Amino acid sequence: MSDPVRVAVVGGGYGSKVALPVYAELEEFQPVAAWSRRPERARELAEQAGLELGTADLDELLRFPGLEAVHIATPVVTHREFAGAVVDRGLHLLCEKPLADDLAAAREISTASRRAGVVAAVNYGRRFEETRRRLLQRGREVLGSPRLASVSLVFADHADPRSRPWTWVHDATLGGGRLQGYGVHDLDLLLELFPDVEAVAAATEVTVAQRIADDGELRPVSAEDTFAILLRFRGGGLGVVSFVATARHDRGDVVEIHGAEGTVRLDADGRLSWGRSGEELQVEGPLSSSPQEAFKHVARRFWASIREGAAPDPSLDEALRVQALFDAVRTADVERRWVRPERVAG
Ligand SMILES: NC(=O)c1ccc[n+]([C@@H]2O[C@H](COP(=O)([O-])OP(=O)(O)OC[C@H]3O[C@@H](n4cnc5c(N)ncnc54)[C@H](OP(=O)(O)O)[C@@H]3O)[C@@H](O)[C@H]2O)c1
User: Fold this and answer.
1) CB atoms within 10 A of CB 136
2) What is the 317 CA–ligand 1 centroid distance (Å)?
3) What confidence category does residue 345 fall into, taking pLDDT thresholds of 50, 70 and 90?
4) List of domains in the chain
Protein backbone atom coordinates (compact mmCIF):
# COMPACT_ATOMS: atom_id res chain seq x y z
CA MET A 1 0.00 0.00 0.00
CA SER A 2 1.46 3.34 -0.98
CA ASP A 3 0.51 6.86 -0.24
CA PRO A 4 -1.28 6.96 3.12
CA VAL A 5 -3.74 9.84 3.56
CA ARG A 6 -2.65 12.32 6.25
CA VAL A 7 -5.72 12.64 8.45
CA ALA A 8 -6.75 14.66 11.52
CA VAL A 9 -9.49 13.74 13.99
CA VAL A 10 -11.69 16.46 15.51
CA GLY A 11 -13.32 15.19 18.70
CA GLY A 12 -12.12 13.20 21.68
CA GLY A 13 -15.08 10.81 22.19
CA TYR A 14 -15.85 8.41 19.31
CA GLY A 15 -12.95 10.17 17.59
CA SER A 16 -10.43 8.88 20.15
CA LYS A 17 -12.09 5.54 20.98
CA VAL A 18 -12.79 4.29 17.45
CA ALA A 19 -11.58 6.62 14.67
CA LEU A 20 -8.00 7.34 15.81
CA PRO A 21 -7.09 3.73 16.71
CA VAL A 22 -8.47 2.51 13.37
CA TYR A 23 -6.60 5.18 11.37
CA ALA A 24 -3.43 4.26 13.30
CA GLU A 25 -3.92 0.57 12.48
CA LEU A 26 -4.69 0.95 8.77
CA GLU A 27 -1.77 1.39 6.39
CA GLU A 28 -4.02 3.57 4.21
CA PHE A 29 -3.82 6.40 6.78
CA GLN A 30 -1.31 8.45 8.71
CA PRO A 31 -3.05 10.22 11.61
CA VAL A 32 -1.18 13.49 12.24
CA ALA A 33 -3.34 15.73 14.45
CA ALA A 34 -6.24 15.77 16.91
CA TRP A 35 -8.61 18.43 18.24
CA SER A 36 -10.42 18.64 21.57
CA ARG A 37 -12.35 21.55 23.06
CA ARG A 38 -9.85 21.47 25.97
CA PRO A 39 -6.15 22.15 25.13
CA GLU A 40 -4.86 19.71 27.78
CA ARG A 41 -7.12 16.94 26.49
CA ALA A 42 -5.99 17.70 22.92
CA ARG A 43 -2.33 17.34 23.95
CA GLU A 44 -3.15 14.10 25.80
CA LEU A 45 -4.86 12.69 22.69
CA ALA A 46 -1.84 13.57 20.55
CA GLU A 47 0.60 12.06 23.05
CA GLN A 48 -1.36 8.83 23.41
CA ALA A 49 -1.63 8.35 19.65
CA GLY A 50 1.87 9.65 18.82
CA LEU A 51 0.53 12.52 16.70
CA GLU A 52 2.44 15.61 15.61
CA LEU A 53 -0.22 18.06 16.86
CA GLY A 54 -2.89 18.19 19.57
CA THR A 55 -4.81 21.46 19.65
CA ALA A 56 -8.05 23.15 20.74
CA ASP A 57 -7.68 25.62 17.85
CA LEU A 58 -9.51 24.26 14.79
CA ASP A 59 -7.84 26.76 12.50
CA GLU A 60 -4.37 25.66 13.64
CA LEU A 61 -5.35 22.05 12.94
CA LEU A 62 -6.69 22.83 9.47
CA ARG A 63 -3.46 24.72 8.59
CA PHE A 64 -1.28 21.76 9.58
CA PRO A 65 1.26 21.26 6.76
CA GLY A 66 0.47 18.35 4.46
CA LEU A 67 -2.92 17.63 6.04
CA GLU A 68 -5.30 16.07 3.48
CA ALA A 69 -8.42 14.90 5.30
CA VAL A 70 -10.37 15.59 8.49
CA HIS A 71 -12.78 13.41 10.46
CA ILE A 72 -15.38 15.51 12.33
CA ALA A 73 -16.68 13.79 15.50
CA THR A 74 -18.21 16.58 17.61
CA PRO A 75 -21.75 17.48 18.77
CA VAL A 76 -24.25 17.49 15.92
CA VAL A 77 -24.96 21.24 15.95
CA THR A 78 -21.25 21.94 15.35
CA HIS A 79 -21.05 19.85 12.16
CA ARG A 80 -22.17 22.58 9.77
CA GLU A 81 -19.53 25.06 10.96
CA PHE A 82 -16.71 22.51 11.43
CA ALA A 83 -17.38 20.55 8.24
CA GLY A 84 -17.79 23.82 6.31
CA ALA A 85 -14.37 24.99 7.52
CA VAL A 86 -12.80 21.67 6.45
CA VAL A 87 -14.12 21.66 2.89
CA ASP A 88 -13.58 25.42 2.41
CA ARG A 89 -9.87 24.73 2.97
CA GLY A 90 -9.96 22.10 0.22
CA LEU A 91 -9.58 19.20 2.68
CA HIS A 92 -11.45 15.91 2.30
CA LEU A 93 -14.21 15.36 4.85
CA LEU A 94 -15.44 12.36 6.80
CA CYS A 95 -18.28 13.61 9.00
CA GLU A 96 -20.00 11.77 11.81
CA LYS A 97 -23.69 10.96 11.57
CA PRO A 98 -26.15 12.57 11.41
CA LEU A 99 -24.56 14.92 8.90
CA ALA A 100 -26.23 17.91 10.61
CA ASP A 101 -29.10 18.79 12.93
CA ASP A 102 -31.53 19.36 10.05
CA LEU A 103 -31.86 18.84 6.31
CA ALA A 104 -31.12 22.48 5.43
CA ALA A 105 -27.79 22.39 7.31
CA ALA A 106 -26.95 18.98 5.82
CA ARG A 107 -27.60 20.37 2.33
CA GLU A 108 -25.25 23.29 3.06
CA ILE A 109 -22.43 20.85 3.88
CA SER A 110 -23.18 18.82 0.77
CA THR A 111 -23.22 21.92 -1.48
CA ALA A 112 -20.01 23.31 0.05
CA SER A 113 -18.16 20.01 -0.44
CA ARG A 114 -19.27 19.79 -4.10
CA ARG A 115 -18.20 23.40 -4.67
CA ALA A 116 -14.80 22.67 -3.12
CA GLY A 117 -14.38 19.51 -5.22
CA VAL A 118 -13.34 17.42 -2.22
CA VAL A 119 -14.33 13.89 -1.21
CA ALA A 120 -17.06 13.92 1.44
CA ALA A 121 -18.50 10.92 3.27
CA VAL A 122 -20.59 10.31 6.37
CA ASN A 123 -20.03 7.59 8.94
CA TYR A 124 -23.22 5.53 8.89
CA GLY A 125 -20.88 2.74 9.87
CA ARG A 126 -23.34 0.57 11.81
CA ARG A 127 -24.62 -0.91 8.55
CA PHE A 128 -21.14 -2.42 8.08
CA GLU A 129 -21.14 -4.24 11.42
CA GLU A 130 -21.07 -7.93 10.49
CA THR A 131 -24.52 -8.46 12.10
CA ARG A 132 -26.18 -5.72 10.05
CA ARG A 133 -24.16 -6.30 6.86
CA ARG A 134 -25.26 -9.95 6.76
CA LEU A 135 -28.84 -8.98 7.65
CA LEU A 136 -28.89 -6.63 4.65
CA GLN A 137 -27.40 -9.31 2.35
CA ARG A 138 -29.91 -11.98 3.44
CA GLY A 139 -32.76 -9.46 3.45
CA ARG A 140 -32.09 -8.56 -0.19
CA GLU A 141 -32.10 -12.27 -1.06
CA VAL A 142 -35.27 -13.39 0.69
CA LEU A 143 -37.61 -10.57 1.70
CA GLY A 144 -39.40 -9.14 -1.32
CA SER A 145 -41.66 -6.19 -0.55
CA PRO A 146 -42.08 -5.12 3.11
CA ARG A 147 -44.93 -6.26 5.35
CA LEU A 148 -43.60 -5.34 8.81
CA ALA A 149 -40.01 -4.21 9.55
CA SER A 150 -39.14 -3.72 13.19
CA VAL A 151 -35.93 -2.44 14.83
CA SER A 152 -35.97 -2.39 18.63
CA LEU A 153 -33.07 -1.26 20.85
CA VAL A 154 -33.20 -1.67 24.65
CA PHE A 155 -30.45 -0.32 26.92
CA ALA A 156 -30.27 0.20 30.68
CA ASP A 157 -27.27 2.56 30.80
CA HIS A 158 -29.40 5.70 31.42
CA ALA A 159 -31.87 4.14 33.88
CA ASP A 160 -30.73 6.34 36.80
CA PRO A 161 -29.66 10.02 36.97
CA ARG A 162 -26.23 8.92 38.20
CA SER A 163 -25.67 5.99 35.83
CA ARG A 164 -24.10 8.15 33.06
CA PRO A 165 -22.83 11.76 33.35
CA TRP A 166 -24.56 14.70 31.67
CA THR A 167 -23.05 15.66 28.27
CA TRP A 168 -24.25 17.43 25.11
CA VAL A 169 -26.10 14.18 24.27
CA HIS A 170 -28.65 15.16 26.94
CA ASP A 171 -29.14 18.68 25.53
CA ALA A 172 -31.59 19.13 22.64
CA THR A 173 -30.10 22.54 21.76
CA LEU A 174 -26.74 20.87 20.98
CA GLY A 175 -28.39 18.25 18.75
CA GLY A 176 -28.37 15.58 21.47
CA GLY A 177 -30.83 12.74 22.01
CA ARG A 178 -30.90 9.09 21.15
CA LEU A 179 -32.49 9.68 17.75
CA GLN A 180 -29.21 11.27 16.62
CA GLY A 181 -27.23 8.63 18.51
CA TYR A 182 -28.95 5.41 17.42
CA GLY A 183 -32.21 6.19 15.60
CA VAL A 184 -30.50 7.55 12.47
CA HIS A 185 -28.45 4.33 12.10
CA ASP A 186 -31.68 2.30 12.31
CA LEU A 187 -33.47 4.51 9.78
CA ASP A 188 -30.41 4.18 7.53
CA LEU A 189 -30.64 0.38 7.87
CA LEU A 190 -34.31 0.27 6.86
CA LEU A 191 -33.72 2.72 3.97
CA GLU A 192 -31.06 0.35 2.61
CA LEU A 193 -33.78 -2.29 2.17
CA PHE A 194 -36.88 -0.15 1.57
CA PRO A 195 -35.88 3.33 0.35
CA ASP A 196 -39.37 4.61 -0.36
CA VAL A 197 -40.97 5.89 2.84
CA GLU A 198 -44.30 7.59 2.22
CA ALA A 199 -44.95 8.97 5.72
CA VAL A 200 -43.85 8.80 9.37
CA ALA A 201 -45.45 9.22 12.80
CA ALA A 202 -43.29 9.51 15.92
CA ALA A 203 -43.20 10.21 19.64
CA THR A 204 -40.20 10.94 21.89
CA GLU A 205 -39.90 11.10 25.67
CA VAL A 206 -37.42 12.15 28.31
CA THR A 207 -38.04 9.45 30.93
CA VAL A 208 -35.18 10.38 33.30
CA ALA A 209 -35.39 14.15 33.56
CA GLN A 210 -32.12 14.95 35.40
CA ARG A 211 -28.58 13.71 35.14
CA ILE A 212 -25.48 14.24 37.24
CA ALA A 213 -22.89 16.62 35.74
CA ASP A 214 -19.10 16.63 36.22
CA ASP A 215 -19.49 19.30 38.96
CA GLY A 216 -21.73 16.92 40.96
CA GLU A 217 -24.90 18.96 40.31
CA LEU A 218 -28.03 17.51 38.72
CA ARG A 219 -28.78 19.11 35.34
CA PRO A 220 -32.04 18.96 33.37
CA VAL A 221 -32.21 16.59 30.39
CA SER A 222 -33.96 18.07 27.33
CA ALA A 223 -33.08 15.45 24.69
CA GLU A 224 -35.04 12.21 24.34
CA ASP A 225 -33.87 8.96 25.91
CA THR A 226 -36.84 7.01 24.51
CA PHE A 227 -38.65 7.08 21.16
CA ALA A 228 -41.05 5.19 18.91
CA ILE A 229 -41.30 5.77 15.15
CA LEU A 230 -43.89 4.36 12.77
CA LEU A 231 -43.15 4.29 9.03
CA ARG A 232 -45.53 3.66 6.14
CA PHE A 233 -43.73 2.44 3.01
CA ARG A 234 -45.01 3.59 -0.38
CA GLY A 235 -46.70 0.62 -2.03
CA GLY A 236 -47.48 -1.06 1.30
CA GLY A 237 -45.95 -2.30 4.52
CA LEU A 238 -45.08 -0.74 7.86
CA GLY A 239 -41.90 -0.10 9.84
CA VAL A 240 -41.48 0.34 13.61
CA VAL A 241 -38.26 1.74 15.10
CA SER A 242 -38.15 1.94 18.89
CA PHE A 243 -35.52 2.73 21.50
CA VAL A 244 -35.21 2.99 25.26
CA ALA A 245 -31.99 3.92 27.10
CA THR A 246 -33.60 3.82 30.55
CA ALA A 247 -34.83 0.22 30.75
CA ARG A 248 -34.30 -1.66 34.01
CA HIS A 249 -33.04 -4.72 32.10
CA ASP A 250 -30.62 -4.40 29.22
CA ARG A 251 -31.24 -6.37 26.03
CA GLY A 252 -29.51 -4.81 22.97
CA ASP A 253 -30.69 -4.80 19.35
CA VAL A 254 -33.40 -6.97 17.83
CA VAL A 255 -34.27 -6.53 14.15
CA GLU A 256 -37.11 -8.53 12.61
CA ILE A 257 -38.29 -8.02 9.06
CA HIS A 258 -41.23 -9.80 7.48
CA GLY A 259 -41.45 -9.44 3.71
CA ALA A 260 -43.91 -10.79 1.14
CA GLU A 261 -41.40 -13.52 0.19
CA GLY A 262 -39.55 -14.27 3.44
CA THR A 263 -38.14 -13.29 6.81
CA VAL A 264 -34.88 -12.07 8.39
CA ARG A 265 -34.31 -11.76 12.13
CA LEU A 266 -31.29 -10.56 14.10
CA ASP A 267 -31.41 -11.55 17.77
CA ALA A 268 -29.82 -9.60 20.61
CA ASP A 269 -27.01 -12.18 20.83
CA GLY A 270 -25.99 -11.50 17.20
CA ARG A 271 -27.63 -14.63 15.74
CA LEU A 272 -29.13 -14.11 12.29
CA SER A 273 -32.07 -16.18 10.99
CA TRP A 274 -33.45 -16.00 7.47
CA GLY A 275 -35.60 -17.95 5.07
CA ARG A 276 -38.03 -17.81 2.17
CA SER A 277 -41.71 -18.65 2.40
CA GLY A 278 -42.17 -22.41 2.94
CA GLU A 279 -38.56 -22.96 4.14
CA GLU A 280 -37.28 -23.55 7.67
CA LEU A 281 -35.35 -20.52 8.92
CA GLN A 282 -31.58 -20.96 8.64
CA VAL A 283 -29.37 -19.57 11.41
CA GLU A 284 -25.81 -18.21 11.49
CA GLY A 285 -23.77 -16.57 14.21
CA PRO A 286 -23.31 -15.17 16.70
CA LEU A 287 -21.90 -12.50 14.38
CA SER A 288 -19.71 -9.56 15.40
CA SER A 289 -21.03 -6.06 15.93
CA SER A 290 -17.58 -4.50 16.46
CA PRO A 291 -17.70 -0.72 15.75
CA GLN A 292 -13.96 -0.76 14.97
CA GLU A 293 -14.34 -3.43 12.27
CA ALA A 294 -17.35 -1.56 10.83
CA PHE A 295 -15.43 1.72 10.75
CA LYS A 296 -12.49 0.07 8.94
CA HIS A 297 -14.78 -0.44 5.96
CA VAL A 298 -15.85 3.24 5.95
CA ALA A 299 -12.24 4.42 6.37
CA ARG A 300 -10.85 2.18 3.59
CA ARG A 301 -13.56 3.35 1.23
CA PHE A 302 -12.77 6.97 2.17
CA TRP A 303 -9.13 6.29 1.20
CA ALA A 304 -10.22 4.72 -2.12
CA SER A 305 -12.41 7.75 -2.86
CA ILE A 306 -9.48 10.12 -2.24
CA ARG A 307 -6.76 8.11 -4.01
CA GLU A 308 -8.66 6.13 -6.65
CA GLY A 309 -11.82 8.14 -7.31
CA ALA A 310 -14.19 5.49 -5.87
CA ALA A 311 -17.64 6.68 -4.79
CA PRO A 312 -17.75 7.41 -1.04
CA ASP A 313 -19.73 4.85 0.96
CA PRO A 314 -21.82 5.98 2.75
CA SER A 315 -22.20 9.01 0.51
CA LEU A 316 -23.59 12.44 1.36
CA ASP A 317 -26.63 11.66 -0.81
CA GLU A 318 -27.34 8.74 1.51
CA ALA A 319 -26.83 11.06 4.48
CA LEU A 320 -29.38 13.50 3.01
CA ARG A 321 -31.86 10.64 2.55
CA VAL A 322 -31.65 9.80 6.28
CA GLN A 323 -31.69 13.50 7.17
CA ALA A 324 -34.99 14.04 5.31
CA LEU A 325 -36.53 11.19 7.29
CA PHE A 326 -35.02 12.50 10.54
CA ASP A 327 -36.58 15.96 9.89
CA ALA A 328 -39.95 14.30 9.21
CA VAL A 329 -39.67 12.32 12.48
CA ARG A 330 -38.96 15.52 14.43
CA THR A 331 -41.93 17.31 12.85
CA ALA A 332 -44.22 14.32 13.39
CA ASP A 333 -43.24 14.22 17.07
CA VAL A 334 -43.73 17.95 17.69
CA GLU A 335 -46.92 18.35 15.63
CA ARG A 336 -48.35 14.90 16.54
CA ARG A 337 -49.32 13.99 12.99
CA TRP A 338 -48.21 11.87 10.02
CA VAL A 339 -45.51 13.64 7.96
CA ARG A 340 -44.26 12.93 4.44
CA PRO A 341 -40.45 13.10 4.26
CA GLU A 342 -39.05 15.50 1.70
CA ARG A 343 -37.73 13.71 -1.38
CA VAL A 344 -33.98 14.14 -1.87
CA ALA A 345 -31.69 13.12 -4.70
CA GLY A 346 -29.63 9.96 -4.35
N1 LIG B 1 -20.69 6.40 13.88
C2 LIG B 1 -20.98 5.99 15.11
O3 LIG B 1 -21.29 4.82 15.33
C4 LIG B 1 -20.90 6.99 16.26
C5 LIG B 1 -20.77 6.57 17.60
C6 LIG B 1 -20.71 7.55 18.60
C7 LIG B 1 -20.81 8.90 18.27
N8 LIG B 1 -20.96 9.25 16.96
C9 LIG B 1 -21.09 10.64 16.54
O10 LIG B 1 -19.89 11.35 16.84
C11 LIG B 1 -20.19 12.71 17.13
C12 LIG B 1 -19.61 13.02 18.50
O13 LIG B 1 -20.16 12.17 19.48
P14 LIG B 1 -19.31 11.68 20.74
O15 LIG B 1 -20.14 10.63 21.40
O16 LIG B 1 -17.94 11.35 20.33
O17 LIG B 1 -19.34 13.00 21.63
P18 LIG B 1 -18.45 13.40 22.92
O19 LIG B 1 -17.55 12.28 23.30
O20 LIG B 1 -19.37 13.87 23.98
O21 LIG B 1 -17.64 14.68 22.41
C22 LIG B 1 -16.89 14.67 21.24
C23 LIG B 1 -16.07 15.93 21.17
O24 LIG B 1 -16.88 17.10 21.13
C25 LIG B 1 -16.44 18.03 22.11
N26 LIG B 1 -17.59 18.78 22.67
C27 LIG B 1 -18.43 18.43 23.67
N28 LIG B 1 -19.35 19.39 23.87
C29 LIG B 1 -19.07 20.37 22.97
C30 LIG B 1 -19.67 21.61 22.67
N31 LIG B 1 -20.73 22.04 23.36
N32 LIG B 1 -19.12 22.35 21.67
C33 LIG B 1 -18.05 21.90 20.98
N34 LIG B 1 -17.44 20.73 21.23
C35 LIG B 1 -17.95 19.97 22.20
C36 LIG B 1 -15.78 17.18 23.19
O37 LIG B 1 -14.86 18.02 23.86
P38 LIG B 1 -13.81 17.48 24.96
O39 LIG B 1 -12.73 16.83 24.16
O40 LIG B 1 -13.39 18.71 25.65
O41 LIG B 1 -14.57 16.50 25.82
C42 LIG B 1 -15.14 16.09 22.35
O43 LIG B 1 -13.87 16.46 21.87
C44 LIG B 1 -21.71 12.83 17.02
O45 LIG B 1 -22.07 13.25 15.72
C46 LIG B 1 -22.20 11.40 17.25
O47 LIG B 1 -23.46 11.12 16.65
C48 LIG B 1 -20.98 8.32 15.96
Assistant:
1) 16
2) 23
3) confident
4) 5-125+292-314 (3.40.50.720), 130-289 (3.30.360.10)
